[in-house]
Amino acid sequence: MRDRTTSTPSLAAQVLLLAAIIVFCLFPFYWMVLTSLKSQLVALQTPPAWIFDVTFSNYTEVLFDNNVGRSLVNSLIIAVVTTAFALLLGAPAAYALARFEFRGKKELWFWFITNRMVSPIVLALPFFLIVRSFGMLDTHIVLILIYLTFNLPIVIWICTDQFRSIPREIDEAAVLEGASQWRIFRSLCLPLAAPGLAVSAIFSFIFSWNELMYALVLTRNQAKTAPAMAVSFMEGYSLPYGKIMATSTLIVVPVIIFALIASKQLVRGLTMGAVK
Amino acid sequence: MQATQDIGRNAAALQRGGRPAAEEAIIDVNRVRAGTKLGFLGPAVFALAAIGLAPLIFAIWTSLYNYNLTKLANMRFIGLGNYAAVFTDPVFWQAMGRTFTMLVIALPVQIALGMGIALLLHQPGLGFLKTLARLSLVIPMATTYAVVGLLGQVMFNLKYGVVNQLLGFIGIDAVNWLGVPAYAFATIIFWDIWQWTPFCALVFLAGLTTVPMEIEEAARLETKSWWTVLRHIQLPFLVPGLTAVLILRTADTLKQFDMVFTMTRGGPGSSTELISLLIQRIGFRAFDQGLASAQAVVLLVITIVLSRLYIRIFYREV
């Protein structure tokens, strides 16, 4: 007699379930790419077409006529510079959290991590007013700075872990040699922490690249990022579905490549602060 | 082991004519001057204070004023007036209610499905297919949230959407997913489940791999029931992951903006207007910065209280 809760489902059932998971995860992505290759006429067919004459005109149009190209460049500049700042400021702080004892360390850690929890709208309101009074709306530097509010914590979180995993004996030996803390950090620990730095850089890049609300509120034309640009296609009555999906594909593909590269660390990065 | 090492190090230190290692370690820590610590930490703390804390204080100041961007001439101090308005405003609490309704429906589904997927992937065998499935799980959670919303608009469209076409194949009539309030709300929940179930699955899978092999194998010899193994052997190792999912999904639902904004703009009516969308509308489309700031401060307080509460419940030992 078989127990109703016997351990493994049969092999065939497993294959079916796995196939269902894969299709379920990938289908929307497939549909996005498919729609991006449809002319407006095909995109507005009912029921939707699965087989049609492929056109790349959506891509050439959004890139060269609709400023999506420039918005992608904006996104790239902002994501790269904010990531560089986050590493520059975050790595030393992470080293201090991993190596030094001081009062208020727990409170400081909690504050860093709380930044992850706060809704961006809470900061978007005052930031808008401040930036507006300085006449700095629609500039790259504003987004670069405000993106540090979530990139700095993620760099600190991942790198503190990484520095903790470097054996203390290494820097104790260096201290005996008379090396300063700064030198130990720069020439000894930083190279050893390279994997952590790389992973946190990938995260910082992905978060900045994906961000929408701040970009929507703080940019108009000059510094408009790609997600904000994609949203601006949604105005008006006849929606250009092909163009919207072409822009979406251009935004998503680099992120997915990065995410797959860092897929082993993805969980660690996304559960930041919530797992000890 | 530790003791042996200490003895060895003490001996080495004494040979050099120095102090014993244990004492040396303490001095070592203290020897880092306060100035050095400040040099390492200062820039990051200063930056976060300047961009993360100062604006918050400014938001609290704004929330005490009648501050409408279209009627700046009327700007004046009204004390807690905006807060009184928030607390008595049914629109605010309805948005809050929708946000928590979404959380309460989506989260258990994400946890249950995620657990099922994790257990399936944790089974031995079918290596290639499982690697493929694990990589596929990365795609939804990596997809730009705004794009997920845009994609939702395309796929759930009444006339041109593929979802209605697929439902048609199994004999279900076309549904106006984004046009009817209740369906629109169901759709954003479904879409949230699509994007974040993989996250739960990967977190639980990571938890399952921390169960020592010997223990799990011994348990499997004892019983054939996967439920017994899950409850008595695997669950303790899954608690940290479960906690993380609970805390982060709560925070992320309170933050939820991009996907819903790009898919429904909060509509039809206000049926999908979650709390972050409401505050964005009041602040940037009604231009009532004072009221929006008060709403944001209330949201911030709720967020902090909830995360403190979670931390107190789950990390009691800290």
From TrEMBL, chain A:
Pfam families: BPD_transp_1
Domain called ABC transmembrane type-1: residue spans: 72-262
UniProt KW keywords: Cell membrane, Membrane, Transmembrane, Transmembrane helix, Transport
CDD domains cross-referenced by the UniProt entry: TM_PBP2
Primary location class: membrane
Annotated SUPFAM superfamilies: MetI-like
Coiled-coil ranges from the UniProt annotation: none
KW Membrane (keyword) present: yes
Mode of membrane association: Multi-pass membrane protein
Subcellular location, record wording: Cell membrane
PROSITE patterns per UniProt: ABC_TM1
Transmembrane segments: 12-31, 76-97, 109-129, 141-160, 188-209, 244-262
Keyword Acetylation among UniProt keywords: no
Family in the record: Belongs to the binding-protein-dependent transport system permease family.
PANTHER family assigned: INNER MEMBRANE ABC TRANSPORTER PERMEASE PROTEIN YCJP, MALTOSE TRANSPORT SYSTEM PERMEASE-RELATED
Protein name per Swiss-Prot or TrEMBL: Carbohydrate ABC transporter permease
Organism: Chelativorans intermedius
Automatic annotation (TrEMBL), chain B:
Topology in membrane: Multi-pass membrane protein
UniProt-listed Pfam families: BPD_transp_1
InterPro entries on file: MetI-like, MetI-like_sf
Ranges that cross the membrane: 40-61, 73-93, 100-121, 133-154, 166-190, 196-213, 233-251, 291-311
Subcellular location: Cell membrane
Domain ABC transmembrane type-1: 96-310
Superkingdom of source: Bacteria
Keyword terms, alphabetized: Cell membrane, Membrane, Transmembrane, Transmembrane helix, Transport
Predominant localisation class: membrane
Family under the similarity heading: Belongs to the binding-protein-dependent transport system permease family.
Name by which UniProt lists this protein: Carbohydrate ABC transporter permease
Organism taxonomic ancestry: Bacteria, Pseudomonadati, Pseudomonadota, Alphaproteobacteria, Hyphomicrobiales
